[in-house]
Amino acid sequence: MSMTELMTSDIDTWDFTTESREIGDSQYVGFDRLTGESVVIDGVTLLRTQYELTAFDAEGTEMWKSEGAEYVSREWRMFIGGLSSYITSDDQFDSDDTPVEFINPGEPGYLSVNPKFGCGVEMSLNDLPHSQTILTNY
Predict the structure, then answer these.
(1) pLDDT at 71 over 60
(2) Cα gap 97→83, rounded to integer Å
(3) How many angstroms separate the CA atoms of 138 and 135, rounded?
(4) Which of 17, 46, 81, 137 is the most exposed place for a label (fewest CB within 10 A)?
């Protein structure tokens, strides 16, 4: 998956295989596409995306698929959760991981061990200087 390709072409298609002792070899096929829309959440401009992903086992049998609409920060060069549907042969469920607030260094609640909104907190702490922002969901 290539953030550069997505930002320059508005779409990134991918097809790759992973090897795992736990679940075996898996192939992932799909795309991320910019929709041309943006949204501002807590002062941060995010680009809307659409995605589709299908996972296959080593024999080529579909294991699960997912589709939805997420966000990308051009400035931070990262994906941020949104609305997703997951479909397996046994079940289907939806999730909404759309952020409602970004807590930056020096702001109350930054690096708190207690989720501000009572559900899963997603942290992004990598080597990029502005990526020390905590994304709070719900």
Answers:
(1) yes
(2) 6
(3) 10
(4) 17
Q: Rounded to whole angstroms, what are the CA distances from 73 to 3, 23, 30, 77, 101? A: 10, 32, 20, 5, 14
Is there a contact between 102 and 44 (Cβ–Cβ < 8 Å)?
A: yes
Antiparallel, parallel or unpaired: β 134-137 and 121-123 = antiparallel
Q: How many CA atoms lie within 13 A of 28 on its CB side?
A: 15
Mean pLDDT of 24-32: 94
Query: Of 18-27, 47-56, 79-88, which range is least confident?
Result: 18-27
Handedness of CA 124, 116, 87, 48 (dihedral sign): negative
- Backbone conformation region of residue 49, classed left if phi is above 0, alpha if psi is from -120 to 50, else beta: beta
Domain spans, the chain: 3-97
How many Å from the N-terminal Cα to the C-terminal Cα in the chain? Answer: 27
pLDDT higher than threshold 70 for residue 129: no
Q: Is the pLDDT of residue 6 over 60?
A: yes
